[in-house]
Amino acid sequence: MNPDRPLMKWRLLDTGTLDAPENMALEKVLLDSCSGGISPNTLHLLEFSPCVLLGYNQLVNDEVNVDFCRSNAIGINRRLSGGGSIYMDGGTLGWEIIAKKSTPGIPGNREEMFRKLCGGAILMLSEFGIQARYRPLNDIEVGGRKISGAGGSENEDSFIFHGTVLVDFNADIMASALRLPAKKPDYKNVSDFMARTVCMRELTGRAPGMEEVKARIVKSFADVLGVAFENGGLSHEETESLNRELPYFRSDEWIYRDPAAGHPPEQRLYEETQ
Fold this sequence. Notes:
Elements: E1 8-18, H1 20-35, E2 42-48, E3 51-54, H2 60-63, H3 66-71, E4 75-78, E5 86-88, E6 92-100, H4 110-127, E7 133-135, E8 139-142, E9 145-155, E10 158-166, H5 171-177, H6 180-183, H7 190-195, H8 200-204, H9 210-225, E11 227-231, H10 236-249, H11 252-255, E12 267-269
Parallel strand pairs: 1-2, 1-11, 3-4
Antiparallel strand pairs: 2-6, 3-5, 6-10, 7-8, 8-9, 9-10, 9-12
């Protein structure tokens, strides 16, 4: 990187805690708006009220204990990306990069892109003394145990690549909300699944505050991408698009969609698993 060249400016968008339909609708809006030339390249930090998120092509009844989720105010929704179902709550930080594929510094090769973008979360974890590494195709692990999964989708000349950081983790709730044996046939039982998953609290002896994690991940992505982030909110056009999309993302048509319907022809899915 040329030290005399001004850094590219990207938007930093922190939308705080939203419910699953709001976060999923917003992902579509940001991707479509970037592709349409409305939105700038963006690092989006997001948090979720308790929910289960399915991969784009999964069936709710195969993956989710619906009765438990309804009884415990746990939302059910699905991502734009493929892969497996995940449980999200206040102990998980979501991050996503929405950008033009032609952006300088974004590798054209998909695995190289995945590796570089996962590097932002890996660098952040190192700031807490956690030595994580990228595991192809889309995982971040610590000592063979997964602390983050990533995935995404692309639309024409733009992409969204999103991931999670497990700051804290309620294993009992997750195990009750998900149908783990169906989701992970290579895992013999829930305890086997948990033995392969780890959170920051377990590794450091404390669950760091979410604001501290956010501050460090922003700095880490700035370093990895060689950009400067500027705080920004949603534009008027993005807000209007979000209001139009939200009813669909709250609907049974979206949540209980038939995977046989495929996906929009303009989108290609990246895989995500937790």
